[in-house]
Specification:
- This protein has helices at 19-41, 49-57, 60-67, 72-79, 83-91, 98-108; strands at residues 4-8, 11-16.
- The protein is mainly alpha-helical.
- Strands 1-2 form a two-stranded antiparallel ribbon.
- Helix 2 (49-57) runs antiparallel to helix 3 (60-67) and helix 4 crosses helix 6.
- The longest helix has 23 residues, at 19-41.
- It starts with a strand and ends in a 9-residue tail after the last helix.
- 13% of the residues are buried.
């Protein structure tokens, strides 16, 4: 790489590079940003389209429970409540308390926001 340094008051102030080298540097920086974005996203869970569609139309607790492969009994046990409590919540006959909503979110490995229609 050929660089010309321009000084002011004895200190480097500007670095001039040929335009082609500048373009390569810009491309390398953009590639690095893309790599960082990919690395950041790799830890995120991807949700199938069919599940996303169901979340728009159905009780999110039921959708997440079924997606995670849990029975009502298994979810109830993890949350420390009865199966009928889970059934009533999924059926819309009962609203969960904040404490229960937190427990359900933890059991289903989702954020509470993901459980509120």
């Amino acid at each position: 790489m050929s660089v010309q340094i321009i000084e002011k008051d004895g200190r480097p102030e500007w670095a001039l590079v040929p335009y082609d080298e500048y373009l390569r540097m810009v491309e390398a920086l953009e590639d690095r940003k893309d790599i960082q974005a990919i690395e950041a996203a790799q830890g995120e869970e991807t949700i199938p389209h069919t599940i996303v569609k169901r979340l728009l139309d159905e009780n999110p607790i039921r959708v997440w429970r079924e997606y995670r492969g849990l029975t009502m009994a298994a979810l109830a046990k993890r949350c420390g409540v009865s199966v009928s409590a889970i059934s009533q919540i999924e059926g819309g006959q009962r609203k969960p308390s904040v404490r229960l909503l937190k427990a359900v979110a933890e059991a289903l490995e989702v954020d509470i926001d993901d459980l509120v229609p």
